[in-house]
Each structure stands twice: as structure tokens, then as C-alpha cells.
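Annotated sample (chain length 630).
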Amino acid sequence: MSDERLLRVVLATFLFCNIAISRAKKDETDVVAIMDTLSRLRINPFSEGYTSLVSLTSGFVAEDKVRTDMQRAQKLGEERLEGFCSKVFTNDSHSKFFETIKSAKLKTFSTKAPSGKRAAELAGVKTDRSLFMQLLVIGKERSLDLKDILQYSLSPIPGCFSSVDGHTISKTTKSALVKVLEEKTPSSTLTEKPASSTVIVDTMALIQSMKVTSLPKTFGAFTSTILSRLTSIGKQFNAKEVHLVGDQYFETSIKSSERERRHQSVMQLTVYGPQQGLPVQWKKFLSSGNNKTSLQLFLAEDLARQQLNGSLDLVIALKPTATRVIFEPNSPAVSSSIDSLTSDHEEADTRLILHAKFAAEYSDSVVIWSPDTDVAVIAISHSSMMSCPVLFATGTGKHQRIINLTKISDCLGPTAPNLIKFHAFTGCDSTSSFHGKGKKKSFKKLMENPDHVACLAKLGDNYHMDALPPGMENLVCDLYNTSSSTVRDARFEIFKKGALEKNLPPNKDALLNHCKRANYQAAVWSRATSAMMACPTPNGNGWDVVDGSTNVHWLSEPHAPPAILKTVKCGCKTGCEARSCGCRKKDLQCTALCSCVGCKNCSEDSNLEVENEEYASDSEEEEEDEENEY
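Output written by the structure step:
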């Protein structure tokens, strides 16, 4: 072998070895990274018993549709390629070689759910305007009395109770109610913090208040941050004891439809251990009830394993049971259960009140740390049962303030227990508000009238309601500033002024179903100080439960008279004289909505031309406390 050839062999061997070594190092680095990730997630996706599809970068568990699409992606791609080739390489199809293969549009971990904004607007337009006006025109031309027509909803989803998409409940600014109560009781806002207290902390409010940019990298470090925040809050209010109270997320819930809407595209993540990394999309992670349940279960266990340099008495209620954990400097925490605080409450809103009543027995004052108006309202209604002042710490930074809820309750007097009923009736997280009717003016209109207070007082006595309480229709008529005493007459009175359907009061059927929902929610809140509520299913109480999903039951009766719902229009070309005419067949007159030619089946004065056009949705939102303009 020549020297030149030998040199080439040596160089080639040297380069091959270097490349092999470099590749081996890279492969080893990749393997170590994968092992580190699996160790951090504390899962083994290669085990026989593990069937979920997990993203190794985020730890999210794929939804069923995502898992199915990703598992069939390769097979589907091969089938499409084979189909493309068989089509292109036939004798006369060479011109199709440059055509694209149609995308399969498979779902992946990064698939985002459509916002549906445009679809929501169209649904609102069709329900609120077009259908409503068509039914009125048909009813008029078929000799139906307008008052009789307006006793029906004329829309399958009442506009006064629903948002523009026609499926979610109408919302109002809840915080306006607390402001009204503070104005009514000026001395209720405290300038000094209590000398001694027990603090009851809303878990999710605490977690949501943490800045995403300052979150630690692992769940274990997150637990330490939570404990540090609780210690700080305790010192801030001179607390001898701190309670950490969380929600429970039941499959059948009056909030399930709202939760499903919020996290329809959220991946599910199980928190396995302290070394597991926090997901990058933290806010999105928290929008899922299952994720929050997993997080709370982890916190309940991990908090009890922590150590503190100082002392802290912490009561943890993140599961149905409650545990007292006593921290002493440089010593393991000591845990014990509190049987009297074991509860079946779904929401932290009511469970906070249960803990407040428990702590009031041995505290100088109780501070509820939460930003939620619902919690403040429930606490005011129950504060007369507490043996010490109940304070409400809300707001952040410069806007943080402490409200003495006991003083507000004393100011309201016998009206205080009915505040939760007013709140449920005029709109909260689970019940609709009346469109355009804010809390401020509704409070002045309803809570300052003894007859209306007596009517609202009947809500919540039992979980189930069969009929409207006496005086309820008169209450709604007063809310809408009419002189009528029935909602049927009130709808007619306001309609004559040119109101849109969403600005009309509900008809009697829609009002009854709304009252059923308000009654059920008021019944839950009324039992906040009882550890075991034994709440029945919401099915039949203003909601329908189908296949585990809870949806609003808007109407129990037809939304329009039978004469209107029958054959809406025809398109005859021969004058509508034959029995084959759809309208004549049902013994109905044709209307302006029919497209018939030379009609002989309409009334003499039926010359109205109706444009079935799409109306643009309102571009400006109504002010919350502004009266409707008719």
C-alpha cells in the first residue's frame, strides 16, 4: 500500500471515530434528557399499565380526540400518499403531479379550540331579532292577539337571561353590590388591622394572585411559596391560626357547563411529585377543574411535609376532610384531623363560611381573605350566627381594604339573611342576571321594598320549587319600571315602546325556571354553616343533567303559540288556492313571510313587506347600572 493511500485510510478512520464519538455523546445527552424528563414527571409511559398519551415537554395528558388523531397520523398519511400516487401516475393524469395532498387537519397537543365569536354573534342575531320579528308578523296576520303572543317567550332561549351566543347566562358586575353595601354603612371600612384574628384563605384566590413571571420551576418549590405566602398573610392580620380552604370539583355541578366552556381545549395534567415542573401555560392549566383538583391534592400532602423556621397553626381543607398542621421551628410538622370540618361542600364560597363559624368560637375576630363578592354576600347573611366580628380582606396593593361584614349585617337588620336570595335572583356565577339591570339599582328597587323582601325571603327554604312565590311577578314588573302587575302585561307595555326582545321582561315560564335556579343556589348558600348539605341533583331545578353534563333549562313550555309554530311559510306559484299549499293545508292564512305569487289565501290588509336581513350586533356594551332605553 502506498504512503498516500495509507494516509487516506488513517484520516478516514480518525474522522469516523471522531464522528462516532461525537454522535455517541449527542445520543447519550438525548437519552439522559429523556430519562431526566421522565424522572421529573414521575411517570413511565412505556409501562404496560400506562395508556394515556403524555407530552414529554409539558406533562399534559392528551384528550381522547388528540390521542386518536396522533395514533392514526402515520397510517392516514400513508393512505393519502398512496391515493395521491395512484391518481397521479395513471396514463392521463400526469398534469395532477403538482396538486397538493389535502390536509387531514388532525388534532395535536397544540390544537386550539375555535373562539366561535362570529358563530356566537350570528346565533344571537337569529334568536334575538329575525325569529322574534317573524313570529310577531305571523301571529298578527293569523289573527292572534298581540298580548297573547307576548305571553310566550318567542325565542327558544330568553334574551333577557342569555348572552349574545344564546347559550351562556347573562352576566352582571357583582362587585357593584359590595360597593352599595359599603356606601350604606360608611363605618364598615376599617383603617386598622385587627389585634388578633384567625384568617380563612381562599386557596384558588391565593394561587391566582401569584404573578406568572415569578412562579418557581417545580411543584415542590410552589408548595414552599404557598406556605411562605400563608405565613405572611397570617402576620399581616396578627393571626393565631390560618385556614387554607379549597373547592371540590364534582362531575355533576351547576357550574359544569361554564367550566366546560372555559377549558374545552385544556390538556389534563396530574401532579405526581415535588420535582415535577410547573406547566408553562399556567393560567390555562388552572382553567381545568381536574387540574385544580390534582394540584390541591398534591398541596394537601406536600404542605404537611414542610418545615418552617417559625411557628404556624395551619388548617388545610383541600379535600373533603380537614387537617390541622402545627409547625414549630426546625421540627417536623404535627398533623391531626378535625372531624367537625369534614364536609360535602362543592364550593369554597360556602366552605369558607363553615370555617369562619368554626373559628369564631375561639377567636377575637375572623378575617376572610378572598376577592369574591359571592363570599362577602354569604358571610353577611350568616354573620349574625358568628360569636365574633367577621372581616373581609379584599383587593390588592393600594386598593386592599378590610370590610367589617358584621357592621353591614347589623345595618341591614332583618333584611341581612335575605341578601343571598337577592344576589342569587339578580345574578351570580351560576344564575342569570336580568339584561341591563345592574346590582345597584336592583338593590334600591327590591331590597328597600318590604313586599319584595318578603317575596325573596321564600327562596331557598327548600331545594325544589314548583310555582312562583306570591308577589314575584309584581316584583319583576317593578324591576322593569312598569305599572303592570303581571309579566304578560309588562312585556306588552314595554314592547309598545319599541323594545328589543332582550330588553323585555321574561315571560312567566322563563321566570319560573329562573326562580328555580335562584332558589336552588339560595338553598345551597343558606346551608353554608352546615358541614353536610346533602344537596340533591340540580336536574329538574332549573337545569337538565344529561350524560353527566349540566345545562340550563330555559323553558318548560313551547316558545310560541301552536298557530305560529305550524308551517311558517309557503312558496306557491299558483295563488295558494289548491290544498297543496302548505298554509292552506293547515287551515292557516299566508303571511308576509311567504314567497308565494298571486296569493288568494291572505287577509286584505296583508301588504306588509318583511326584510329577512341580518342585523349587526350592538357594538357598545350597556352601562351596568343604566336603565334600558325603549
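Annotation: DSSP finds 22 helices and eleven strands in the chain.
Annotation: Confidence is low (pLDDT under 50) at residues 113-129, 606-630.
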